[in-house]
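Issue: copy button drops trailing tokens. Both records pasted manually instead:
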Amino acid sequence: MKVKAIPTTNVIELKYADKNADVADSIPNVISQAMLEENIKNTNS
């Protein structure tokens, strides 16, 4: 897993490599969804 902050934005880039393409696609998506949900929760608190 590689995580990179995009300068001057609130965006991060997630990269994950796996021999299984489905796993390689799903891991960053699950992490980004969890981060998004946490951000929404914190914003609404």
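Record 2 (pasted manually too):
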Amino acid sequence: MNALNEWYRQLSERDKKVIQIAAPIAALVVLVFGLILPINAAVSDLQKEVDANKKAVVILQAESPQGQAGQGKKSFSSLTNLVTNTSRQSNFKLDRFEEKNDGEISVWFDSISFDKMLSWLATLENEYGVTSSYISISQTSDAGIVRANVRLISEN
């Protein structure tokens, strides 16, 4: 610091005036471009991210079974209807089903494509909030075809 003071004292009056004017301007430029603008850009980016996340939440709530208005607990018959209708739409038949307590239904397949069954179960969970609490799968003599028992629960 002493060396800097000594250097400043050796300057001419004109150079001292230039430094007295330029130093605060340089400090202000460094402050603006080095601190304020990057912080402002970061805040702007975060605000855009928050806005995008808010839109995503609205979309997810609108698409989720829990977010849809007027959808309360499913009764046994509506769960049965949902299971039979979605299986029909997936082009396979239920060999047997049995309604259980507490909004559960057990479904048996004597012969079903394993991939089709998994796709159907994913559709039930993702679109209707119906999950499986128990699955029993056994092989058949045909490749890719299984015998299965699935217990489904309505989450909504």
